[in-house]
Design brief:
It is a single chain. The protein is mostly helical and 161 residues long. It has one domain (5-21, 28-157). It is 70% helix and 0% strand. The chain has helices at 5-17, 29-44, 50-75, 85-95, 103-119, 124-127, 132-157. α5 (103-119) packs across α7 (132-157). The longest helix is centred in the middle third of the chain and has 26 residues, at 50-75. The relative contact order is 0.15.
Length: 161
């Protein structure tokens, strides 16, 4: 790692990409990041009106792309497992259109997102091939859209708006 101001930027980029210490969890750090997001969503995300939720997600996505790209360079590997800001972002994105989610739907959102993020059906797998931080963040965005559609269908099927 470089010294001076560049070193500070690198520390910030890695910290953001790793979501603090969550990326350092040795087993399934992406799942832990998703769990953190779904546990925090009722407090920091779902109470917001729709437009501020979009802004909240943009405030994660845009620096996330940059931090993930820098983390790849620093760590010397493509989509390192300790980079988990993408899972945090994707998990929140699943909840975007819903005014509130009861515990069972939060659990369903978590499971659906993890399934689509891990299985990577097309076009999730295609999005993952985008270069650098864009690919890291974009595949989770697409996985989240799949999960969001399934969650909406589940809520409709169970009579929830």
């Amino acid at each position: 790692m470089a010294s001076g101001p560049r070193r500070h930027v690198d520390i910030l980029a890695l910290g953001f990409a790793r979501l603090g210490g969550i990326g350092a969890i040795p087993r399934a750090p992406g799942t832990w990041a998703s769990l953190a997001a779904i546990c925090l969503a009722p407090f920091i995300f779902l109470p917001l009106p729709l437009f501020p939720r979009f802004l909240f997600l943009a405030a994660i996505y845009i620096p996330g792309v940059l931090a993930c790209a820098r983390a790849e360079e620093i760590l010397g590997e493509k989509d390192p497992p300790q980079v988990v800001i993408d899972e945090f972002f994707g998990q929140l994105l699943v909840c975007l259109p819903f005014a509130g989610l009861e515990t069972e739907y939060l659990a369903a959102a978590f499971i659906l997102f993890r399934v689509f993020d891990i299985a990577k059906p097309w076009p999730v797998s295609a999005a993952e091939k985008a270069p650098g931080g864009t690919g890291i963040m974009l595949d989770d965005l697409v996985a989240a859209l799949y999960a969001m559609i399934c969650l909406a269908a589940l809520r409709w099927a169970t009579g929830r708006p």
